[in-house]
């Protein structure tokens, strides 16, 4: 019997095929199933070979300019003019949460701001996957006594360790009432500056982020958190990649208003010089009660340590092993 | 020498056929300016939807279809919009297919259709200002063709109708 995650990765590939020219789609489907199943990215570059990467990196036949143009037309619904904001960000989200990064000629305004992108010559299709229920192993350390709420927490980890994936699953379980038996369903607000947590396409989250979850898509974090606080009266605000003192101030405002905050930050450890000042600010304001350090061991993601606001190690959370993380991977919504 | 009943029936059939052909050609000439005008109106709606509302093309095409609802031009835009809703479809494919399907019903000459086919090549593939410029150019070309179609209508619509009947009469006389 095939591994459940394997079946689903192949499904992720199939779900992006309609956006590709027929001959490229045919070529991808002719690849050995092991390559298809482990595929993470499909890169198309005009007049250069098609590149697929995942468990193995491969170069296939040359991609023409017309084929790139077809992909751009298809992913924008032949409405390049309507996705200029997305072009300024450099990527477009497809139904299913797949993300297409684009590179081409950038036009700038008189104020040196990026206006739009034309003559697109490269597309990088990242196949989306979601992880279910991994976040529930954090329940013992995040749920307050008697289930009276959620502790504010910051997930710390280097790039590609699953911070956003963990945030997404936290939103889903907390916003659906399945995070912990003691905890009722809470109202969750996601401020999704880079559209990575919920991957909204035309206003609809492409990942399951919970039934009581509202998403403010593509909003700047500081203004977005303030907007959600006023407009949606959430119990928990979730955002990705906080990075400077301004962000730390906004987090403090959130927690002062009695709302829990869960976010993430790039960093190798709590002693990382790049984030030390920010962590000190967050601890000083009492805005964050738990620091969750995550990493990657081999091909697996893992929670490494959890600390409280005094940086004392917290125990009591479920096994540090991430076995089950990979096994539970599957695509939530198929177009 | 009398005319047999078969000759009468044959003559009537020939006369009816040539009259209908003449009538069809006359109708096509008569309807062409109206359809070109509707086409221009729908393109103006498309221009507004794209230039000001930044509406996705499928929605813009649906609005353009609504502007010419109940007419072959409306059907052309509706078909293009429906094709575009399929994942992975492009404006070029959907509009080209719709033009080929509805060209005759829209009384369009091949040169009229070519304006839309050329527009399809760049529709939705550039920024809003370029799209508006491209639509304006197409509208200007269709307006010029409409003026020419009006002149043709005034000169030839009645001629074709009469010519159809006369051609039938001539054929009947020759056959009898």
UniProtKB/TrEMBL annotation, chain A:
It comes from the Bacteria. PANTHER family: KINASE-RELATED, P-LOOP CONTAINING NUCLEOSIDE TRIPHOSPHATE HYDROLASES SUPERFAMILY PROTEIN. The keyword rRNA processing does not apply. One of its GO terms (molecular function) is ATP binding. Keywords: ATP-binding, Nucleotide-binding. It holds the Pfam family Spore_III_AA. SMART domains: AAA. This is AAA+ ATPase domain-containing protein. It comes from Ferroacidibacillus organovorans. The keyword Nucleotide-binding applies. Residues 149-281 form the AAA+ ATPase domain.
TrEMBL record, chain B:
It comes from the Bacteria. InterPro entries: Spore_III_AB. This is Stage III sporulation protein AB. It comes from Ferroacidibacillus organovorans.
